[in-house]
Amino acid sequence: MSNKSDPDKNLQPPLSNSTSSLKGVRVLVARPHEQGAALTAHLNSLGADALQFPTITIEPVSASNTKQYATLKDCFLNLDHYHHIIAVSTHAAHYGLQWIDQYWPQLPLDIKWYAVGEKTARTLLEADIVATASQKGYDSESLLNLSELAILTDQRVLILRGAGGRELIKEQLELRGAKVDYADLYQRNCPQYTVSEINEALITFSPDILIALSGETLHNLVKISQNKDIALKNTTVITDKAVIVPSERVADQARRLGFSSIWVPKGLHKQALVDCITSNYFL
After folding, report:
1. Looking at 158, 189, 220, which one is the last position of a domain?
2. What's the longest Cα–Cα distance across the chain?
3. What share of the chain is helix, strand, coil (3-state, %, to 5)?
């Protein structure tokens, strides 16, 4: 069994042929590096002035982290003990597949696979794993509404995720009778920027729109903008900008942080984000 390609490659629907549909719009993309690079390039191809400014980094667990590495090894050596496996993100799917490749030339039978969001499901499908994802949403709540996960008495579930993620899925599945384990495959960290880098992104570039597709990405962006040495404090504040967030849950977080212009797209693929900008910015 092998992971055939990068998790963020060729996962989006066909995009608009227009080269100027976003002309004049300045967009700051706060996504992790690989995802942000692809989105930034696409926005620029549509005429936007887009700048990549990741406010979250993804770092897989390494062998130097002895305890966590040993826990992961145990999970994947015993993969056949699980009835259900859930990947909560494309990163979780990508790194989980790498671990599986180390120990399972062929996947164990009779495991049911699930994905939070269609994009994560497509990442698994590229490795010939058919995963069930909700057709009604791309968050944990949507996954939990699947009928396949309604009754899990004495069933074992493995959740592939980043360390310190939301506890909702585990808590709810345990209430339904499951025994749930985590495979914490990566760490999410806030990058360290110099004052000049922050000023370049937030003052000199002066974005019209921010793209922050997770709560942690959004919180890190605000935290970075509050650096006491940057010029932003003398001009405007980051919360005056329009921000694109992935869900109403994160939209609520944005409101609590002080944002007032908050847009939630109909999906998280590139075309949905472009549509969100065009339908809101060019009103």
Report:
1. 189
2. 61
3. 40, 15, 40
Indicate if the pLDDT at residue 80 is higher than 50. Answer: yes
User: Which pLDDT tens digit goes with each residue over 118-170?
Assistant: 989 999 999 999 999 999 888 999 999 999 999 999 999 999 999 988 899 99
74 falls within a domain: yes
Is residue 1 in a domain?
A: no
Cα angle, residue 52 at apex, residues 48 and 53 outer, rounded to 5°: 135
pTM: 0.83
Task: Please report the DSSP string for 8-46 in residue order.
Answer: TSS-SPP----SSTTTT-EEEE-S-HHHHHHHHHHHHHT
Q: Which are the contacts of 186, defined by CB distance < 8 A and separation ≥ 6?
A: 58, 59, 60, 61, 91, 92, 95, 162, 163
Instruction: Quote the CA–CA distance of 229 and 211 in Å, as a whole number.
Output: 24
Determine phi and psi for 112, rounding to 5 degrees: -95, 130
* 223-244 pLDDT, tens digit each: 999 887 776 554 558 999 999 9
- Residues facing residue 181 across a β-bridge: 158
Percentage above 90 pLDDT, the chain: 78
CA 263 – CA 198 distance, rounded (Å): 24
Q: What strand order describes the sheet that includes 84-87? A: 57-60, 179-189, 156-162, 84-87, 112-115, 131-132
Pairing status of strand 112-115 against strand 179-189: unpaired
Residue that finishes a domain, picked among 141, 156, 189: 189
Ranges of H-type helices in 82-167: 90-103, 118-125, 140-144
Q: Could you tell me the two tokens for 183? A: 């495979």
For the chain, the domain total comes to: 2
Two tokens at 69? Answer: 């590495």
Strands 179-189 and 57-60: antiparallel
| H helical segments located in 104-231 | 118-125, 140-144, 168-175, 195-199, 215-225
